[in-house]
Every structure is written in C-alpha cells, then in structure tokens.
Amino acid sequence: IKTIGILTSGGDAPGMNAAIRAVVRKSIANGVKVKGIKKGYQGLLNEEIIDLERNSVSDIIQRGGTILGTARCVEFKTQEGQEKGAQICRKHGIDGLVVIGGDGSYRGAQDLARKGINTIGIPGTIDLDITCTDYTIGFDTAVNTAMQAIDKVRDTSSSHERCSIIEVMGRNAGYIALWCGVANGAEDILLPEKYDYNEQRIINNIINNRKRGKTHHIIINAEGIGHSTSMARRIEAATGIETRATILGYMQRGGSPTCKDRFYASIMGSYAADILCEGKSNRVVGYQKGEFRDFDIEEALAMQKGIPDYQYEVSRALSM
Ligand code: F6P
Q1: Taking a C-beta distance cutoff of 8 angstroms, is the pair 70, 11 a contact?
Q2: C-alpha 287 chain-centroid distance
Q3: CA 278 to CA 75: how far, in whole Å?
Q4: From the alpha carbon of 10, which atom of ligand 1 is closest?
C-alpha cells in the first residue's frame, strides 16, 4: 500500500476526528501517504480529495463532528457509481481506503474492495447497532449528552408534577434508550426490540406511581418507536396528568467526545491503518470480549446482536 484514503460516511459521531487523526498518523508512521476524501462517497465521486499530513490533524482530537464532512450517497449504491469511485481512487493513487461509518458505509467499502481497492471499515455511529462490535465510536458521548439533558427535563417535570416522554435517537436500535433509561432512573423504557405497544400498561404504571406519591414519571422512548407527541396527548387524556414530549434530536450527535470515545477511536484508527498496510482488505475493525479484532465485512454484516436479556430485565426491575 502506497497511499491510504480516508472518508467518513453516514451520520457523524463524536470521536470520528480522533479516528481520522489516528489513521493519518499511524499510516505516516508506517511510511504510507494519506489523502482525505471529503463528504463521504459523494465527495469521492466529486473528487473532493486533499492531502493529509501529520499537522493536518493537529488540534482535532477534542472536536465533535468530522473535519472531513460526511454525507449519505445514493449514487454510490449503483454499479456505475462504484466503478467511478474505484477509478477516481486509482487516478489519485489511492490503493487502500479506510471508511468510518455504519453498516451502510461498509457495503460501499465492500463494493470498492470487489473493484480492487483495499478497504477497511471502522464502526462510527452513535447508535451502537453494528453487530460485529460491542463498541461503536460516538455512542459513549451521545449517551452522556442525552443523560445530562434528561436529568434537566426531570427537574422541571418533577417541579410541575408532570409526566415526560423523552425521545432519544438510535434509528431502529434501542441501545441509547436502554442506557439512558437505566442511567436516568426512568419509570418506563420503550425499546423497539422489546416494546409490546401496550399503552394501557404504561398508563396504569403512571396512575399507580402517582398514587404512591411519585411527583414525576419519565418515559424514555426510542426513535425506532417514535410518535412521542401523539403518545403524550393520549397519556394525558387517559391519566389526567399533564404530559409533555421532548425529542432530543441532533444535539445527541454533537459535542466534544468523551475520553472513552477518543481512546477507542485512536486504537481502532491505528488498527485499521496497520492491517491495511499489512495488505488486508474487505475487513471491519471491531471490539469484542475485551479485544480489538477484525472481521470479513460479509461475515460482520451477517452477524446478529440485540438487547442483552439480562440488561433488559434489570432495566425493568429497577424502574418499578
Ligand atoms: O445513525 C445515527 C442517526 O443519528 C440515527 O440515530 C438517526 O436515526 C439518523 O442518524 C438520522 O439521520 P439523518 O442525519 O440523515 O437525519
């Protein structure tokens, strides 16, 4: 490998900059040049390619977002788009590519690998929904940001003796909701993987808690279930208790990454640069059972993971 390209793709996540920094510096240490591709696969197709040196990544480890920019690219899903992307890589001398993003981004990496460009994926998403890894870059910052915001909603909810439904991100996965639900001591936690759509159970829970003297009732609702505003209206009508919905939204994707996100991103970025330099391709970096490892992309995409039963059981038991 002579030149490694790097891009960030899909939703941004805090810690992506730390991963970019690690890829750049470890590649240079390995004697390889690095080029940054702006705005994900879309930027590749538009040839938005810049040289990256050691100093290009100074002063970014603490910044949220991604200095390269990111995008979701429909054109790259077509054969023509992928062929064009591979040709542009070759034209710029890029023979290895690191892609930081989620599952969708790995499919793009796999397509480029089939067209002769060595590719390695790094898991970057706040959703924690990449199956081959117990950890994804951005999750820790996002849950801490959401947890702090939920504490604040709880203060006002308690003062007004209201019920609050707080919707957190996660696309179809409930990891952010589960972690915040437990960490914020929520009375109800609604996860797409487990929710039975039994609103009457929630209503009964609210009424019983009020009888027991609880002044607030916090419901953490996952984005994958959604409809928090209409749910709040129905709950208020059924319980007679003022109910408000708060959708936390994009603030969960921003902010300076936590120590954990910076650390894991630094190791994963370095690991990706090293295995690419060793000649590996079509792999994705993961963290499983306390170890950093790499997996074939096809195998990684076929793996399954879900909300661990015991964690869910605990979340239910503690919210009673
Ligand atoms: O994947 C991260 C994420 O923030 C999800 O939690 C959310 O569903 C999605 O991205 C939103 O994507 P967009 O930025 O395209 O609106």
Answers
A1: yes
A2: 14
A3: 31
A4: 1
Q: Indicate whether this complex's ipTM tops 0.90.
A: yes
Q: Tell me the CA–centroid distance for residue 114 and ligand 1, in Å.
A: 28
Q: Residue 171 C-alpha to ligand 1 middle, in angstroms?
A: 6
Between the CA of residue 179 and those of 115, 167, 169, 194, what are the distances in Å?
Answer: 40, 13, 12, 14
What is the Cα–Cα distance from 103 to 178, expressed in whole angstroms? 21
Which residue from 164, 199, 176 is spatially nearest to 252, judged by alpha carbons? 176
| Predicted TM-score (pTM) of this structure | 0.97
Please give the positions annotated as active site. Answer: 127
Q: What's the pLDDT tens digit per position in 231-263?
A: 999 999 999 999 999 999 999 999 999 999 999
Beta bridge partners of 119: 97
Closest ligand 1 atom, CA of 176? 6
Nearest to 102 by CA among 72, 78, 77: 72
> 9-37 pLDDT, tens per residue?
999 999 999 999 999 999 999 999 999 99
Residue of the nearest CA to atom 7 in ligand 1?
Answer: 171
Contact (Cβ atoms closer than 8 angstroms) between residue 98 and residue 5? yes
CB 210 within 8 Å of CB 187? no
Q: Is 137 in the pocket of ligand 1 (CB under 6 A)?
A: no
The residue nearest atom 10 of ligand 1, judged by CA position, is 11
